[in-house]
Amino acid sequence: MTETSLDQPGPRKAAVGFIFAAALMDILALGIMIPVLPNLVKQFAHGDTATASQVVLLFAVTWGLMQFVFGPIMGMLSDRFGRRPVLLISIFGLGVDYLFMALAPSLAWLYVGRLINGLTSASFSTANAYIADVTPPDKRAKAYGLMGAAFGVGFILGPGLGGFLGQYSLRLPFFFSAGLALLNWLYGFFILPESLPKALRSPTLNWRKAIPAAGAINFLRGHRELFGLAGVYQLFQLSHNVFPSIFVLFVGYRFGWGTRDAGLMLMATGLVSVLVQVALVGRIVKALGERGALLIGLGSATVAFLIYALAPTGWWFLAAVPAGALTGLIGPGLQGLMTRRVGPSEQGQLQGVNAAMTGLCAIVGPMIYLSTFAFAIRHGSTTPPGLPILIACAFTAIAFLLALKKAHPVAVAMAVATV
User: Fold this and answer.
1) Which long-range contacts link 376-382 to residues 24+ away (Cβ below 8 Å)?
2) What is the pLDDT of residues 274-320, one digit of tens each?
3) CB 154 within 8 Å of CB 26
4) What is the pTM (predicted TM-score) of this model?
5) What is the pLDDT of residue 315?
6) End-to-end CA distance of the chain, in Å?
7) Most exposed residue of 134, 238, 338, 394, measured as fewest CB within 10 angstroms of its CB?
8) At what angle do helices 259-275 and 242-255 cross, to 10 degrees?
9) How far does CA 73 lie from the centroid of its chain?
10) CA 304, CA 417: separation in Å to the nearest integer?
11) Distance between CA atoms of residues 229 and 364, nearest Å
């Protein structure tokens, strides 16, 4: 594949369309599990809610750990052997895993399924590398915006569909997710072209690069221009973990919201986020560049977290949703800037490093936010319940200042010179 072939609109659009569909079906399948997995765990725990809560936390930490470990491996393998085989093996493995979880006879087997799920879900790093392969540098932020929209749509529709299917059987959503994943695999097997030609692949496998911490440090040492952006990415991912960790508990304690109100809030947030990803990312990047989009996103996130944390009523909390939705500019802007700084044979490693950082934050973030929320509740007279959200606000504020200094655009020629 030459630089000229990358400029042909047909194959590129078809490939990005597949990645969007693949991400949508994968996130939809993950979203379907959200309302049913805790209840299935509780069923295995003989109705003991405390035990079920501990197991669900273990599952969450395990999933993040698997992302942390296998994200770099997936990225490195895709640089060496191409994106297509890694994506297809991962998607097929995800489908088999959902079947495994649907048929799991015990809690131990369900946990094994969760391990496999974390491994196969690490393919998102390869999907991001695929986008970098087939999209010109100046269009990548928009393409990553579509990926963000896929995440939003999946998490809007998935939990509702999972809850609907789960009322008939707690196993049925897993079978449905398996069907989605296997359909996704068939679609990719017959339609998806390879995006990384052999001439641009990494010539060898260096397993030292696959060690998450050491590999990430060594990779960033070789690309010192990425250090600052990697710091921004890490801080953003840490802040992003606050609501998955404490949202339901926080709004229930602070505003007395039940499951229905919390679900409606999440749906509203997801809808507005999708609108931003689809309608605004491309326009803002075109007008202000990736750096401008990133700074607007981080500034908006800081303001939104501050309002969320200090909101005296539920209506004030809702008022922060538009600012919160603009955080959808962060990922596309940041990915656009980062992918410009490495060549085609290292896009997989870059996304693997990002996946490792995401997995690490999925382990550390819940520990930070759940512990500080518990502390705030115990010391309610002196500590605001929004303390964990204020910590997330501090993370995004620091990320904003770091981005001001480090998120400088690079010439397009630098990003495509090795193509």
Assistant:
1) 377/253
2) 888 888 888 998 899 999 999 999 999 999 999 999 999 999 999 99
3) yes
4) 0.71
5) 92
6) 8
7) 394
8) 130
9) 17
10) 39
11) 20
Both structure tokens of 272: 């507005």
Angle, helices 83-102/172-191, rounded to nearest 10 degrees: 160
The answer, yes or no, to whether residue 208 has pLDDT greater than 70, is no
Q: Of the given ranges (1-10, 122-131, 225-234, 344-353), which has the lowest mean pLDDT?
A: 1-10
- The values of phi and psi at residue 168, to 5°, are -90, -40
Q: What angle do CA 382, 383, 387 make, to 5 degrees?
A: 170
The answer to whether residue 141 scores a pLDDT higher than 60 is yes
Go through the domains of the chain in sequence order and give each one's CATH number: 3-190+223-416 (1.20.1250.20)
Residue 4's pLDDT band (cuts 50, 70, 90): very low
* Tokens representing residue 160 in the block: 């509702």
Cβ burial of 139 (10 Å; 0-12, 13-18, 19+) is middle
3-state secondary structure of 385: coil
Structure tokens given for 280: 């605004």
pLDDT at 232 > cutoff 80: yes
Distance in angstroms (rounded) separating the CA atoms of residues 274 and 283: 14
pLDDT at 224 over 90: no
Structure tokens at 128: 């991001």
The amino acid that residue 58 corresponds to is: L
Question: What single-letter DSSP state applies at residue 311?
Answer: -
Please list, in sequence order, all residues whose beta carbon lies within 8 angstroms of the beta carbon of residue 249, skipping any fewer than 6 positions away.
373
* Alpha carbon distance 48, 87 (integer Å): 38
DSSP string, 32-60: HHTTTHHHHHHHHTTT-HHHHHHHHHHHH
Give pLDDT, residue 419: 39
b/e per residue, 179-206, with b = 16+ CB within 10 A? Answer: ebbbebbeebeeebebbbeeebbbeeee
